[in-house]
Amino acid sequence: MINFLKDSFDKLTTSEERSEVFNLPNCITLLRLGVIPVLFLLLLSPGRILSMIIAVLFIIASVTDLIDGYVARKYNITTTMGKFLDPVADKLIVSTAMIMMIPIGRIPAWIVVIIIMRDLMVDGLRSIASADGLVIDASGLGKQKTLCQIVAVSALLIHYDTVFGINAHVVGMAILYVALVLTVWSGVNYFITFYEEKIKK
């Protein structure tokens, strides 16, 4: 049995599939997913120091999203696996952070529900469009809402007053409402785009 597993692994290590899955951009994305378990520490109602540590890890994970995309484009190693993993990693990290902040009162549950529902609906819509031979690319609005969500979540993770006397929670909530508007707006825009493309076809 052990020899069978070893032989299977050896075959995998020499295959093109392994090269595609474990290239540098995909490995960076997988490392980014490693931040998710750390976010569960939020359930411990962390104080100022732990909140800052979690926020820094979240920010680093968000920045690596830019790095793996840059590396993939620069060295022409964009893969199907990478195209799938990258947006999934982003949504998992942001969604997990928001969900973990609900029990400790840092974010309203209804906002999290709307944001997650929008993402699920858009993903479903894009799957339907793909099945119909239509490609709906990520819109500028979608990228703006993602950026606002990341900034808002980062501030809400910090939560406490910063060294400049600015209350991170207040700033985070203000940006989160902007992100909410962009989230709904971009979601509606995706459905409008799908309808227009469907008519053209």
Task: Describe, in plain words, how this protein is organized in 3D.
The protein is mainly alpha-helical and 201 residues long. It has nine helices and no strands. It has helices at 2-13, 16-21, 24-33, 35-39, 48-74, 80-101, 109-131, 140-158, 168-200. It starts with a helix and ends with a helix.
- Mean pLDDT score: 81
> Radius of gyration, rounded?
19 Å
Catalogue the unreliable spans: 1-6, 8-18
Ends apart, CA distance between termini:
53 Å
The major pleated sheet works out as: none
Strand tally is 0
N-to-C order of helices and strands: HHHHHHHHH
Could you tell me the strand content as a percent range?
A: under 5%
Helix content: over 70%
Shape: globular
Number of helices: 9
Secondary structure class reads mainly alpha
List keywords for this structure.
0% strand; mainly alpha; 201 residues
Summarize the structure.
This protein has helices at 2-13, 16-21, 24-33, 35-39, 48-74, 80-101, 109-131, 140-158, 168-200. By secondary structure, it is an all-alpha fold. The termini are far apart.
Task: Describe the SSE topology.
Blueprint: H1 2-13, H2 16-21, H3 24-33, H4 35-39, H5 48-74, H6 80-101, H7 109-131, H8 140-158, H9 168-200
Helix pairs in contact: 3-5, 3-6, 5-8, 6-7, 6-8, 7-9, 8-9
